[in-house]
Structure formats: structure tokens, C-alpha cells
Amino acid sequence: MKNVVLIISCLLAQSIFSQKGLQKLLKKYNQETVPYIHVENLNEKDDNTILLDAREPREFEVSHLNKAICVGYDHFNLKSTLQQLPKDKNTKIVVYCSLGIRSEDIAEQLKKAGFTNVFNLYGGIFEWKNKGNTVVNKENTPTEKVHAFNKEWGVWLTKGIKIYE
Questions:
Q1: How far apart are CA 28 and CA 149, in angstroms?
Q2: Fewest CB atoms less than 10 Å from the CB: which of 1, 38, 46, 51?
Q3: Per CATH, which fold does 31-163 belong to?
Q4: Which entry of 37, 97, 106, 163 is annotated as an active-site residue?
């Protein structure tokens, strides 16, 4: 019984530590000008929410959230992205990337374009997968693979199969 309690305590401490670490990382890189939405508060089956993936196409092809639209980051084009979005600027839009850093930049541009209901997915696709949620590949088939961006950022992905190419 003591071993079970010890294991549960260790897992809880690890979870709290990793959340604190992620929070610290995001504070370091983000201005927090866009509100976060946490994984547990995102219902990907909600057809009224637009999901935008701010990772590069090669990352998106490995895996992405179901129904997400790849808008990229390095060559993000606001004008072409706006053509893919509803005219209603109050539509709920959730932008994500690997961890929530690149997505903040894209979400800020959407806010400047007049969108009022824009969120940044806290922890990005890594947190989505770490919490046991499904991702799909370019054929929209569920996959365990997640593009981990690089080895430095890949440490934040604790579930799934890390892909780096």
C-alpha cells in the first residue's frame, strides 16, 4: 500500500512540476496578449470553433488536431488565412502550435485584424497529446506520431511517438 501511495505521489509531483515548468517556459517567450484556452476546455467536436495550426506544413502532415487548418508560421499570410475564416469576427478561433509560442504571434495578428474571440491553446499540440487526446495525420487517420519540432522542444512531448524530420 505504501508503494502505491509513493507512486501516486511521485506522478502527481511530476505532473505539477511539468505544469510549473511549462508555465515558466510560456511566460519566458509569450507576452500573454492572447488568452489561453486549456486542453480540458477545448471541445474539438464543436463545429463552431475554428482550429488553426500555426506549425509548418511538414509538422502538420505528421499530425494535427482533427479539423484544423494549417496556416503555418514562417510564411504566414494573413490575407489568405482571412479567406478561410468566417466573416463573423466573433467566431471562436483557437490557434495552436507545438507548445503555444508561435501560435501567440499568429493569434495576435488575428486580433489586430478585428477577431474578438481568439485563444491560444496552452501547451499546444504537445499538451493535447500528453493529456491523451487524439491527433490525426495528413490522411485524417488517428496517429501516435507527433512532430516534436526539435530535440530541445521535444522534451515537452511525453506521450506519442516523436518525429523530427
A1: 18
A2: 1
A3: Oxidized Rhodanese; domain 1 (3.40.250)
A4: 97
